[in-house]
Amino acid sequence: MRHVDRTKSLEQLDGERWGDPPADSTSLVRTVHKWRRRPVGTLAPHELARLIGQNVGLTWLLPLSVEILREEAAEQAEGGFVDGDLLYAVVTRNPEVWAADPELARELRRTLSLFTDLSRYVKQEVEDLLASLPADI
User: Is 5 helix (H, G, I), strand (E, B) or coil?
Assistant: First the structure.
């Protein structure tokens, strides 16, 4: 799985500077621009979910999110809370994203198997994703 330097921003990691958003941008666009400048290790799960939902920085944010989800799965086993937004954002990415990174997809599959109590909506999305992955992943 790709190592992600949590001290760097998406702009630093991907080497792409977006500049300031247009003056008439929506709050979502302004927020995404702002979050791209923050170190990825400082992004909260709901912020990661929003960026992933916009298909921003997937190369860097998906490995980080799988790590977070693995931690949440372990906490859930001890009675903890699962951030359904992050889980939903991760499992609803295009299956081609996962097929392009089989190692990460295998880690996601292992991580998803650790969850024991998901809402039926998220559980269905998980099942759909798993069914869409190649058998060797």
Answer: coil
DSSP per-residue codes, 81-128: ---HHHHHHHHTS-HHHHHT-HHHHHHHHHHHTT-----HHHHHHHHH
User: CB under 8 Å to 128, separation ≥6 — which residues?
Assistant: 91
Q: What is the DSSP string of 13-59?
A: HH-----SPPTT--HHHHHHHHHHTSBGGG--HHHHHHHHHTT-SHH
Q: What angle is formed at CA 13 by the lines to CA 93 and CA 54, rounded to 5 degrees?
A: 30
In single-letter form, the type of residue at position 53 comes to G
CA 74 to chain centre: 17
The whole-chain average pLDDT of the chain stands at: 91
Sign of the dihedral through C-alpha 127, 101, 5, 11:
negative
Tens-digit pLDDT profile for residues 37-85: 999 999 999 999 999 999 999 999 999 999 999 998 888 767 766 768 9
CA distance 97 to 105: 9
Strand, helix or coil at 136? Answer: coil
